[in-house]
Amino acid sequence: MSITIFDEPEVQITSVIFRATPGETRLESYPKRMVLDGREVNFVEQGMRYLVQKGQDLIKLFDVSDGQNDYRLRLEGSNRWTLVGTKVAA
Prior knowledge:
Blueprint: E1 2-5, E2 10-20, E3 27-36, E4 39-42, E5 45-54, E6 57-65, E7 69-76, E8 80-88
Antiparallel strand pairs: 1-8, 2-3, 2-8, 3-4, 5-6, 6-7, 7-8
């Protein structure tokens, strides 16, 4: 297993899914597909979702997997996605 930390390239999220938070009726969106370096990656597993406050801003972090590799994505504002890092299966 190797972990790669990126210079946080911006990625394009081309599809999202919605799920309800347990015990609540409000739906939350999660990334389902991204394009990175011209390659499409489909996520089959959504892991943890973190909400971090940075000064006055709220940043959302998402742990997702394509079934082989794990990705951590960051959402700032309403639509600026960056890839924070990956964990590649050996």
